[in-house]
């Protein structure tokens, strides 16, 4: 039923709705690049550059940030988190799991993931020469 609606909307007068539904129906998904460090200044610069060349940053860009850690690592002196896992040791004391487990200690909080910048490849490639070099470098990063 949803696909039927999407198929009908591919012929809508609203170009944005038509394009997004067409992309979904014909599997023309946005390409993405992975970015290690993306601060707010960089995000603003990318959005402004994309808008300056006639694209819509709210629809032609999507930035996915790794925000939810599955486990909140232990920090001595900090208040306990709801996500911490406490273990009962052999002396009937509570110890946080990262104090006991090498594996947990090695994976918790060290690498929180990379940002993904999604964009319509054909639209960006048409305006790539008009974008600032700093923005072009971001779009040309290998995945």
Topology:
Layout: H1 2-9, H2 15-25, E1 31-35, H3 40-52, H4 57-60, E2 62-64, E3 86-88, E4 94-96, H5 97-100, H6 102-107, E5 115-119, H7 121-127, H8 133-139
Antiparallel strand pairs: 1-5, 2-5, 3-4
* SS class: alpha+beta
Q: Given the structure, what is the number of helices?
A: 8
Catalogue the unreliable spans. none
CATH architecture of the largest domain: Up-down Bundle
Helix and strand sequence: HHEHHEEEHHEHH
Residue share in helix:
40-55%
> Per DSSP, what share of the residues sits in E-state strands of 2 or more residues?
5-15%
Coarse morphology: elongated
Amino- and carboxy-terminal Cα gap? 35 Å
Average pLDDT number:
84
How many runs of DSSP E, i.e. beta strands?
5
CATH topology of the largest domain: Growth Hormone, Chain: A
Describe what this molecule looks like in 3D.
With 143 residues, the chain is α+β, with helices and mostly antiparallel strands. The chain has two domains: 1-73 and 111-140, Growth Hormone, Chain: A (Up-down Bundle), CATH 1.20.1250.30; 81-107, no CATH class. The protein has eight helices and five strands; from the N terminus they run ααβααβββααβαα. The strands form two sheets. A three-stranded antiparallel beta sheet has the order 1-5-2. A hairpin with a 5-residue loop joins β3 (86-88) and β4. The longest helix is centred in the N-terminal third of the chain and has 13 residues, at 40-52. The mean pLDDT is 84.
């Amino acid at each position: 039923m949803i696909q039927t609606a999407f198929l009908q909307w591919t012929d809508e007068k609203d170009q944005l709705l038509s394009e997004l539904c067409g992309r979904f129906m014909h599997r023309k998904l946005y390409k993405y690049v992975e970015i290690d460090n993306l601060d707010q200044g960089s995000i603003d610069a990318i959005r402004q550059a994309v808008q300056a060349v006639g694209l819509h940053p709210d629809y032609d860009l999507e930035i996915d940030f790794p925000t939810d850690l599955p486990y909140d690592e232990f920090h001595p002196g900090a208040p306990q988190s709801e996500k911490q896992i406490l273990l009962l040791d052999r002396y009937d004391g509570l110890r946080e799991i990262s104090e006991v487990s090498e594996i947990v200690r090695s994976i918790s909080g060290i690498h929180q993931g990379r940002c993904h910048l999604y964009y319509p490849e054909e639209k960006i490639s048409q305006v790539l020469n008009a974008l600032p070099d700093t923005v072009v470098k971001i779009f040309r990063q290998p995945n």
